[in-house]
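Q: Hi! First time doing this. I have a protein sequence and I read that you can turn it into a structure. Is that right? Here it is:
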Amino acid sequence: MLVNMNQLLPIAKKNHFAVGAYNVSNAELLKASVEQCEADNAPGIIAVHPTELAYAKDDFFAYVLQRIRNSKVPFALHLDHGDTINNVARAIHDGFSSVMIDGSLKSWDENVKITKQTVEMCHLVGVTVEGELGTIGQTGNHIKEHLKNGIYTKPEDAKKFVEETGVDTLAVGIGTAHGIYPSDVTPKIRIDILKDILNVVDLPLVLHGGSSNPDDQIAKAVETGITKVNISSDYKYAFFKKAREVLSNDDGWDPNNLFPTCITEAKKIVHHKNELFNSIGKAELYKDTKPWRSELL
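A: Yes, that's right. Below is the predicted 3D structure, encoded as structure tokens:
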């Protein structure tokens, strides 16, 4: 069942769990994330970065929509880190039920302006909008620099940003970064900052950079009030680690040879994350939810 974030996340917030957002760019990653969420009877979010959207092409997302509309569990189809109005317009055109507009690296006024424009456009067609305040940073070699110099979200700024933009969900900077952390880096999620934000902002909060963090910190963030956690690197790493292993022992020219065990390894990570987010079995809570824009279907 296809839903938007206003259908998906308030139920998670009320029932103290989080929904995993799994980035996809091909049929194999989609299979791993959707099938495991179905096996776990857990709601899910199919997240797509603009670079993934550019790679997979519009036609692929017609298939994605068909697949999740026919699922027994609720899924949102979400643009992850859209950075231009054009990205957002393309996602709307492709049938996405949710978008993120990321102006976090812009000035306050520029971030508010582009986020407000996105909200005004998306709400006309029932698409929900995630904004970002504070910085989560880039991947790879940028992680150490980000964790040293990243910007934490100030509670008073979060309150003002929500009021000025009208976003439906807010991604906050509380100490995570994108990607797999180097072995000599130990991240620390600032639960104290999260609590302060929750005291002044009454809408679903999002944790980006959910991969590679200690399980106990992620579980604590969810227990405290995070309702959406983004996962990309962890389950893709498991998938491609297995792919390299298969290819080193076999020519692997046939996808039917190469991908099944890779999908299995990725599913293990998705299942673990769903356990961590306390979302297993929670699809039952959506039994009275109608599909997004069902009146138009």
